[in-house]
Amino acid sequence: RQLVVLGAGLDTLVYRLAYRHLRMFEVDHPDTQQWKLELLQAAGFEIPASLSHVAVDFERQSLADQLSAAGFEPGSPAFVSWLGVSYYLDRPDVIKLLEYAGSLARSSQLVFDFLLEEACLDDQGKEAIHTARKVANAHLEPLRTRFEPDELSGVLQRIGFSTVFRLDREEA
Q: Which of 78, 94, 104, 125 could form a disulfide with 121 if both were Cys (CB 3.0 to 4.6 A apart)?
């Protein structure tokens, strides 16, 4: 019944979905969200009535509080998409967001990506991270958090996720 896109950036998923019966929430940093809304308006996009834009600075504000204020129902199942964000946050902020997702109603689901610890990478992966780090630093968005897969699975299970699937690079 609910779709939450964390760190929505310039993603247009909610504008392309045919599932207008879903209550949708796009969550992003206030500055990024304002920029996106200006671009959408300039391009003539219609904002679906079922969509709420929720401005949240993940490092300074409570995601739970901001979502609830926008009408999100934590007691109802939700699908949460969190792609392209976790590695830009400090580890405690990542864990806090994972804990919130784990506290949602039974049968809720979370999909997210994360960066692997350097020791877990092959040569191609190490080169990709080196390049990504240079680009991120040039945009003043340093890569802050990485995980070892077994460690992250343990964190997710401790938080309360009953099933954890990890896709490798090829599967993803």
A: 125
